[in-house]
Description:
Layout (H helix, E strand, L loop, with lengths): L14 E6 L5 H10 L2 H6 L2 H5 L1 E6 L9 E6 L4 H4 L12 E7 L6 H12 L4 E6 L8 H10 L13 E3 L8 H15 L10 E10 L3 E10 L2 E2 L3 E3 L4 E9 L7 E2 L4 E7 L8 E4 L5 H8 L14 E6 L2 H11 L4 E7 L4 H10 L2 E5 L5 H10 L3 E4 L2 H16 L3 E14 L2 E14 L3 E6 L2 E13 L2 E3 L1 E3 L3 E8 L8 E5 L3
Helix pairs in contact: 10-11
Amino acid sequence: MKQEKANNLPPRPPIVVVVGHVDHGKTSLLDYIRKTNVIAKEAGGITQSMGAYEIEHSPRGEAGNGKKITFIDTPGHEAFSKMRSRGAAVADLAVLVIAGDEGVKPQTAEAIKILNDTATPFVVAITKMDRPNANLDKIKNELLAAGVFLEGLGGNISWQGVSSKTGEGIEDLLNLILLMGEVLELTFDPQAEAKGFVIESLKDNRRGMVAHIILKGGVLKEGDNIYTTSAKGRVKVLENFLGTRVKSLEPSSPASILGFESLPIAGEEFSVGEAVNSEKELIQKGTNGVIEKDGENKPGAILKADTSGSLEVLKELSENIVNVKDSSLGDITDGDVNLAISSGGIILGFRVKVHKAAENLAKIHKIKIFTSDIIYKLLEETDAHLKGQRGPVVIGELEILKVFGDSGKRQIVGGKVLTGVIRVGSVIQVERNSSPLGEGKIVNVQEGKKDVREVGAGVECGMLIESEARIKPGDIIKVNESA
């Protein structure tokens, strides 16, 4: 018998993030849910800027018994959903979206890895089921190959076919989410100090610093002192996701806060009460950054930020991709460029400006300067630049099983994808017995005699390859990300 629900603490609604490959219907699904729900519909454009919204759904047969669900809906959520502060994730559960007419793609595989790494429970929504070429069996088999074991196929992961065009299956998907929330026994302590996550922040010319947040524990009230790793303040105005001013807020509600002295960073955890060295404590305990790099030679970097809290966060997150040589507050000056010249590094600036003298000096000495007011964009831009310097990154490997024929440089081969993804147009390396044999390009890929753009791990496929190397069974094909 289960322990009485968290000592009779009141339940809180589940917080849900929707993840998956680009163009697989994430936005359409969220739009359909929002537009067909009375509460969310009332919010109109407010939810678009806030990055999250609440809906109320009555499970089938329970008319009048509406239960709340909070959806995270923001361009930045994929970056900061990877960040965990003291082991706490922003979302309680996820919906993994896969297009019924396409299947498992690279970002699908990446999302699955993130969900597994963060131990986030999830359900699968197979979208675009209104399309004639939607293939459930193919999707299920590809998910099996990716290590996702669905109900009915020896696993316990729930799934639902949906169409954001017709609405088919969406009510059942919402029922699944509510059921999962009940199984997780999500509760909150009304007496505990409020805590949650910042999902977006902005400077409003009329209202000042505005932070959009999701509350995960306790009760947040106007007048509370509030702290994140990079910012602090006092809750002067508290607005729910409909834009209505309220005196207090319960989990798992999205809201807007006015009262921060400086802009907090998207993805940060916040808490109320005493500061208790919260900045130092959070940093020492660490956050998992947006980008992780292990065992690589990292370039030197000079870091600049607008506040000490922001600088500490930038140092913590950037150490995965660069070797920090120096860090300080304020705009980027020619002195910073001289430091970068002497250390052979780059400069990262968070919420700072670049002085003209610094810009000119950097151009002369070819020093790269990266600046942004959004931390995950700053890190992603820096990482993309460094990847380009390091050369191609292998995103997939395939073992050759059979060679069907060749015509000059072009060879028709069959093989099985060992890891990652194989994609049309990719530049490849051919290896035999771990030694390089030559390079080439994938001209065409077929799966089951059907032309496809890419295939994932565990799938057997046929390929037309253009290469000087004479390929044989047993050879390994490595596919480059730079394709």
